[in-house]
Amino acid sequence: MSDNVKKTEKKRFVLVTTEFRGVFAGYATDTDGDTITLEGARCAIYWSSDVGGFMGLASTGPTKKCRIGAAADIELRKVTAVVKCTSGAEQAWISAETYKQ
User: How far out from the chain centre does Cα 78 lie?
Assistant: First the structure.
């Protein structure tokens, strides 16, 4: 590959946690470092016990008992974990009803 050809980075759907106890899921191309940019990110405002903890949000995705915020592009700082989501979890995040208080 020549130096003039830019490598195309593939977006992947990931769950990201932050030092501030935030839990977000969205599309990222670069997940290295303390700051990560997510496209179409949604925030887990509350997740129910039937999910099995925040790792369950990456494995199966949110259930109807969870409260999920609206989608937005976001830059997250002080990242503590990046977890690859299953395709089923991705679909559950995308189709989750937006919580409105």
Answer: 15
- Letter string b/e over residues 21-41, b meaning 16 or more CB atoms within 10 A of that residue's CB: ebbbbbbbeeeeeeebebeeb
Given phi > 0 = left and psi -120 to 50 = alpha, else beta, which region is 23? beta
DSSP secondary structure letter of residue 38: E
* 101: amino acid identity, one letter: Q
Decide if domain 12-95 falls under CATH 2.30.30.100: yes
Q: To the nearest 10°, report the CA torsion of 91, 16, 58, 93.
A: -20
pLDDT, residue 83, reads 97
| Cα separation values, 88 from 39, 58, 94, 98, Å | 18, 9, 10, 18
Task: Output phi, psi for 44, to 5 deg.
Answer: -85, 100
Mean pLDDT by 10 residues, the chain (101 residues): 53 96 97 95 96 95 97 97 98 97 84
